[in-house]
Amino acid sequence: MPRIPLPGPEEMNPAQRRVHDAVVSGPRGTLIGPLRAAIHNPDLAERWSALGEILRFRTSLPKRLSELAILVTGRRWTSQVEWWVHARAAAEAGLSPQAIEAMRQGKVPVFGHDEEALVYRFARALQQTGEVPRDVYDDAVARFGVAGVVELTALIGYYTMVSMTLNAHEIPLPEGVKAPLEAPAHGGLHELPELKTKSEGQS
């Protein structure tokens, strides 16, 4: 059960309904996840949605890599809705089902491309330590350019906010969907396994 009311379209005031209709007519196609909470402040929801659309749909990063960074973030926070939505999106974008399943289980993923391993290392370091080692950062700039690294960092930060919102308010999965992630036995954040070397995790 969610901790806050999650109004349907018929229950929304005019400002909320305006934002709802704009989101539904955009690339998302539905009001889902954290926007169901943010809609309590329509101005916040409107700006939240606009930022999310830029970071998810309009960056220089290939969708496969964006979805990978989102999965790393969702797994760190054991964010059930985030994982459920983006595991499917990542598979559709070309990330291997084996890598997705390994991350879901908390195992070291095996990637088919070195750029996937690089994104994993970047996102993992930022989530685990709050910073990115210089060699990983420099590799990311060399591979994705300055704009790409700015976008990647913003994407990870944005989906951290998404995870916090989903978890804090206990936004539910769709009815009948089982939680895909196991929470850490000790509580707290999930420990993301490290790729030991730059080449590890590549086929």
Mean pLDDT: 94
Strand tally is: 0
Rg, Cα atoms, Å? 17 Å
The CATH architecture of the largest domain can be named as Up-down Bundle
Q: What structural class do the secondary elements suggest?
A: mainly alpha
Protein described:
This protein is an all-alpha fold. It folds into two domains: 1-58, no CATH class; 61-203, Up-down Bundle (AhpD-like), CATH 1.20.1290. Helices cover 59% and strands 0% of the residues. Helix 3 (42-57) runs antiparallel to helix 8 and helix 7 (114-129) crosses helix 8 (134-169). The mean pLDDT is 94.
What is this structure, in a nutshell?
With 203 residues, this protein is mainly alpha-helical. 59% of the residues lie in helices and 0% in strands.
List the helices and strands and how they pair.
Blueprint: H1 14-24, H2 35-38, H3 42-57, H4 63-76, H5 80-93, H6 97-105, H7 114-129, H8 134-169
Helix pairs in contact: 1-3, 3-8, 4-5, 4-7, 4-8, 7-8
Keywords summarizing the entry:
203 residues; mainly alpha; AhpD-like; 2 domains; globular
